[in-house]
Amino acid sequence: MGLLQPSRPWQRRVQISQDSGGYPTNMFFGRFYLAAAAVALSHIGNVDAFWRMNCGAVQVGRVDPIVNPGAVSAHAHLVVGGSNFGVNSTYSSLLNSQCSSCEVQSDKSAYWSPLLYYQHPNGSFEEVPHGGSVVYYLSRGPNQDNLTPFPKGFQMISGDKTLRSYNDTNLTWGNSTYPPRPIQDAVQYACLSEVLGPGTPGLMNTSYVNTCVNGLRAQIHFQSCWDGKNLYKSDNSHVAYLSDMDNGVCPPDHPYQFAHIFMEVNYAVSQVSNNTDGGQYVFSMGDATGYGFHADFQNGWDSSVLNQALKNCASTDSVDSSGVIQDCPILNQSDDVQYSFNCPERPAEISEPVHGMIAKLPGCITVTYGPEPATAADMECGAGIKQPTIVKTVDSVPLPTSTAAVGAYFGNKYNTYLGCGNDTYGSFMRTLNALTTTDTASMTVELCQSYCTKRGYRYSGLEAGTQCWCDVAVNPTALLNYSNVAYQCDHKCPGNFTEYCGGGQFMSVYNNTDPSFVPTTDLSNSVYQMTVTPAPYAKNYLGCASEGTNGRALNGTTYSSTNMTIESCAKFATVTNNYALYGLEYANQCWAGNALASGSQIIDNLTAPVIGVDCDMRCTGNFSEVCGGFGTLSVYNNTGYKAPAVQASVGKYLSKKCLTEGTSGRALQGTMTSNPSMTVDMCVKYCLGKSMHYAGLEYGTQCFCGNSVATSAGAKAIDCPMQDLMLCPGNYYQYCGGSNLLNLYYSSTL
Ligand SMILES: *[C@@H]1O[C@H](CO)[C@@H](O)[C@H](O)[C@H]1NC(C)=O
Ligand SMILES: *[C@@H]1O[C@H](CO)[C@@H](O)[C@H](O)[C@H]1NC(C)=O
Ligand SMILES: *[C@@H]1O[C@H](CO)[C@@H](O)[C@H](O)[C@H]1NC(C)=O
Ligand SMILES: *[C@@H]1O[C@H](CO)[C@@H](O)[C@H](O)[C@H]1NC(C)=O
Ligand SMILES: *[C@@H]1O[C@H](CO)[C@@H](O)[C@H](O)[C@H]1NC(C)=O
Ligand SMILES: *[C@@H]1O[C@H](CO)[C@@H](O)[C@H](O)[C@H]1NC(C)=O
Ligand SMILES: *[C@@H]1O[C@H](CO)[C@@H](O)[C@H](O)[C@H]1NC(C)=O
Ligand SMILES: *[C@@H]1O[C@H](CO)[C@@H](O)[C@H](O)[C@H]1NC(C)=O
Ligand SMILES: *[C@@H]1O[C@H](CO)[C@@H](O)[C@H](O)[C@H]1NC(C)=O
Ligand SMILES: *[C@@H]1O[C@H](CO)[C@@H](O)[C@H](O)[C@H]1NC(C)=O
Ligand SMILES: *[C@@H]1O[C@H](CO)[C@@H](O)[C@H](O)[C@H]1NC(C)=O
Ligand SMILES: *[C@@H]1O[C@H](CO)[C@@H](O)[C@H](O)[C@H]1NC(C)=O
To answer: Would you say which domain of life the source belongs to (predicted)?
Structure first.
């Protein structure tokens, strides 16, 4: 049966929806979270009940209370479960855990497995971040309604850390009805990419692993059959695998059947800094093949809860076979969906570096490739290597004492707390969104503030516990609700549990008020689009307008700038030009016109804008302002607008309406001048100076004088055709003629 079949991707609620803010997957997220929990539900026509728990790390390091009680263990482990875990863990000490890093708080069991590293060609090892673990409790085989709860003090190990190749010699117990299978089938890998890759018994080659964009998943089956006598034997002979590993029957000498524990450990290989540099993946026990993967289990269940859960949620009578904790009432009672924040990784009990980039594997273990099993010599530090010390840790995570009051200083010097920004609106951008970094192990408020300050960003913000965001301005269309949503910024910082690092889709925002701070002018990293909710629109805002049907909404004149602000567009439209309306578009464009063109209409007036539809971009010259959107304009009214008019008189010169230009010579033949800042006054003054009775303005910039109108040339007096007149470049409230058209002025006296 299908152990080597690909597991079915899990469709149900997963933690990612809570932590990532629902942003598109092509954006960078710090939190790599349980992207695809899955279970090998390979039995046709056999409705097996089960439950599954998501888990985060609770301790990382060379701790192994089963194999090396009280001591530093040979290789480093990734532990999930009871927080009181340590070198001396026992059933009763686990029960005393403050919390579990797995969802179900009545299970304080510990589950541990090796750490995965990526070894760069220069020899150093980079920890592959933990992408979350999932522990399944499955009822399997014909005896599945008669499961035994784990006894107090029970522990076991599945897998063999020395193996470096696949060897199908050792088999599970079986007979002709229930045939056995190779014991090494207990371990398997799956590549989580767009398509779930096929399971493999060993680690795949590096380039294939690198394609596992949603993680490399190691999965292991535990033994489900017990001899009924021994809580633990160092050769693990107190337990045995089911005949078909994840199904079948127990051997006669191990007649007691437990729930079948199946564990998936997700390694976030896509977060390795440079995994295409020719390096390799290596497990912490020096295993470059993956065949040595193993896992340990130490029971820490509240036995009455386990008993009830087995009866009610893991038997063929169970109505529900979804696996979801919420569907199992007894487990749901202690379900904590915020498990990874409420029970974060504890300070290391072993004083040696295991996270990030390290020079040697913890314990200086040699990397081996098999096929023969690794020996003890491969697994130990050489003589003369200083052993790390065991630090007694207190299993108590202090609760955050400090959320700064809004406006108060917090963190690095000069930084003030602005509040908890609500990033749930829209699908793209956040309260701050120019630059981001993530640190799943040591993020603190101070670290984020330093990161942003160093790069010239005044504002820093923490989100989802581990993400840091920087910006030169607070996104004006993100809602910063200083009081109501404070409780949403409730995730402890992994680097300092007494501080808060935002929340799922909520950002704790800080402002660096250092008077000597010099902000960056390089905004190339910054994003103009943003989430929307009441924006700081300037005075006289009319709303967000759509473009016209056959052209621009405002078609008078336009300019664009990498330094666009509402103020500079206003100046351009009102002082430099004389238009009734102006609008900002696409972050950097300013448009002016006297009316919205046909088809253009106000689509919102800041009540309920929609991302990607309404005005949702920041101005290139001022990130605190909104400059329209894609195909939308933030439109303003020039309330001081005065429509241009034909100037009725200048001094003793009176308007004589308009004159068409002569067809065989100029209408005014005395003298002429032109000026790029022509006004009616300028022209009249010029003609008076030349002692001429007529002054005529043409084509905006030209001024003609004469003592008579040369009707012989074909010139003709007409009512001014307003649509053909041009504004005077020196005074937009006046007209200065048009093409072959003069604004005519006359004075009988000089
Ligand atoms: C497989 O394992 C058996 C039992 O440990 C051993 O005797 C045998 O040599 C192994 N085969 C190979 C090819 O390593
Ligand atoms: C097979 O089992 C024997 C006895 O437990 C053990 O010594 C040996 O290492 C195992 N071999 C493999 C390949 O698992
Ligand atoms: C195989 O083992 C099962 C469980 O012990 C038993 O019920 C069955 O009768 C056995 N089958 C044979 C053919 O021995
Ligand atoms: C990644 O590795 C390649 C190949 O060794 C190297 O050329 C490149 O500089 C590395 N990049 C980084 C960011 O370390
Ligand atoms: C573990 O137990 C031993 C024996 O009781 C004790 O000496 C040691 O301090 C304990 N270590 C820790 C880290 O609690
Ligand atoms: C956050 O914003 C969204 C969208 O505007 C809103 O539905 C939600 O109620 C807000 N949350 C809080 C806690 O204010
Ligand atoms: C943790 O945060 C608190 C509150 O900001 C601060 O007082 C303390 O110094 C920090 N601890 C460390 C180790 O940085
Ligand atoms: C941030 O601090 C600067 C400098 O003190 C100040 O000018 C600015 O108004 C502050 N920003 C906010 C949103 O309070
Ligand atoms: C941007 O505009 C502001 C004010 O309008 C001005 O002070 C600044 O020098 C301009 N910057 C650039 C790069 O043009
Ligand atoms: C320009 O806009 C005006 C309204 O101000 C409109 O009457 C005119 O048709 C528009 N011109 C074009 C070419 O769209
Ligand atoms: C905004 O638009 C809504 C819906 O069209 C309208 O009811 C409301 O009066 C407008 N408010 C303002 C200030 O224009
Ligand atoms: C613009 O403001 C002027 C002066 O207040 C007003 O008369 C005019 O109706 C406004 N235009 C629009 C489109 O609201």
So the answer is: Eukaryota
